[in-house]
Amino acid sequence: MVKSIVVLSGGMDSTTVLHRVVKELEKDSEVHAINIGYGQKHKKEIKMAKIQADGLNVPIVFLDIPQIKDILGGSALTDNIDVPYGHYTEESMKLTVVPNRNMILLSLAIGYAVSIGASRVYYGAHSGDHAIYPDCRAIFVRTMTEVAKVANHMPVYIIAPYLNQDKGDIVIDGLRLGVDYKKTWTCYEGKVEPCGKCGCCVERAEAFEKAGAKDPLLR
After folding, report:
1. pTM of the model
2. Whether the Cβ atoms of residue 184 and residue 52 lie closer than 8 Å to each other
3. What is residue 84's DSSP assignment?
């Protein structure tokens, strides 16, 4: 039996990846999910990750390593720094970069994959992230796969299904797949309702506009 792992944050991108993997890409495989806490300021996404995994009968592992934020400084997601408002194309959005985050998270996911005999690790990088997140670009995905091949006795392939598509395309695909986006969290701030101003909220709004749909998190 082929096994696959999805890195599931509980946000709309990784949630859509999970649905696509379970329902299409790996529908005849055994799919697992992993959620990794890295000391981010709020945990709202974690609750959504459990809801989504449970709804698809996907076993999920929760790994929390909050101390890692002590050595990954300078990010508004983990440090005592205000989250910048605006679009991802703005220079200020680099404050949301967590140093080496995806390499760390994927390394842990690869280790988990090897331990359970899974050959594929999926994550939710997309083209909208390319501008400020180097670890969401095609060269990073290819290189991580090559590293995983030489670091272990079995090959593990890193796959980002939406690497060359934007968040709007993700929403369009997710609606086709029946994703309940009310049970996802995108905002960088962990308040009762999305702030509507951070890069994630702005991009999410653009995504639903492109999809011609209403964001269920907004009243």
Report:
1. 0.91
2. yes
3. P
